[in-house]
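Let's practice the habit of predicting before peeking. Look at the sequence and jot down your guess about where helices and strands might fall. Then scroll down.
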Amino acid sequence: MKILIINTSDTNGGAARAAFRLHEALLQSGIDSTMLVMDKKSDINSIITVKYKSVFGKISDRFISPQLNKLPLIKYRKTATKNFGPFSPQITSNKKLLQTINEINPDIVHLHWICYGFLSIEDIAKIKVPIVWSLHDMWAFTGGCHLVAEQVPPHNGKGMPPCGEMCNKYTTNCGNCEFLGSEKTKDLSFNVLKRKKKSFAKIKNMTIAGVSRWMADCAKKSTVFADRNVVALPNPLNTEVFKPISKEISRNLWNLPKDKKLVLFGAISSTSTPYKGYDKLIEALNKITVENVECVVFGASAPKELPQIPQKIHYVGRLSDDVSLTTLYSACDLTTTPSLREAFGQVASESLSCGTPVVAFGTQGLLDVIDHKTNGYLAQPFDTADLAKGIDWVLNNENYDELSKNAIKKVLREFDYGVVAKKYIDLYKNILKA
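Done guessing? Here is the structure:
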């Protein structure tokens, strides 16, 4: 069985990390897996990129194409909110990539995150073998947004709006797009969704894999994937790497205080991406009652203006390797992921695997990762007082060691490489039999 995993990058972003981990898990399970990317940073032989005959072809696909995909957004620049992440029309075709896929001739093409000009919507229908598509965000079935905007209450375009009911226009027809700030029925979002319906209808064999039950449920409700086979399969984790390390050793490595209770928060661009919930965390930290607490933040450097909270914050910047992450999780007493949007929650699963309980809002993909008051705490969305209560509850818990053990058991049982790889292999076999 030959599997071709396709993702825009091999290292940049949560979807890239998840795609690579699945690739690695499949290899460890004896599957012939290759990963095809546009932006390759690693030196791993089983990860390849498109080979071009000329420098211009490479420049065109890697640099010009992503910029051309932004052109349809120009007319919405003044009205669009920029606080929900990217919006991808995916209008530029990548003929060289399609040629590379056909030359590899895999049994199954496994798509992950394919935006930033990597594959056009129409390109996907030209793939000649069965497709599995792992959804790390909502783009595959929306009119172009990766995380849908809020419908209510309305926002003024200045900063993150209050958390209201999520837009569900992807279940019928997009248009009048809150994300774009558009009041037109047949706007860019309407046309992008129309292209997806037309193009994806041509694909005979495509299975959709939401990385959480919530994401799979959203896909089932969508007008694009309503008639497709949709399953929920989580992101895998290498538990041989993400495992508990001595707290004393870990704190020594990071030069963190040994006499404090440490609360960890992190993600890529953790403090500057509104939906990661940094502002919510700051509110909660002003409400906790536990004393002798300090905070650790990864994924961002210290801002010019430090937040007004009683606790000292240690900013450790971006981390590029799993060993650093493992020691940092192990050094802290709890991890908090106060995300407003979370398709799965890789930070949460990584932390649990290292025996560090997690406090988060009980919503979306995090419901699959955290078991309330068993390996962490799920606060009411998006109640900062309850988030603070959860932090207090974990830090004061007399059965903290039991929480830690439950955390490790959860990951070994549900997210370990071997466990998730087997589920995907069974899925592949069923697709090929059919």
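How did you do? The longest strand covers residues 32-37.
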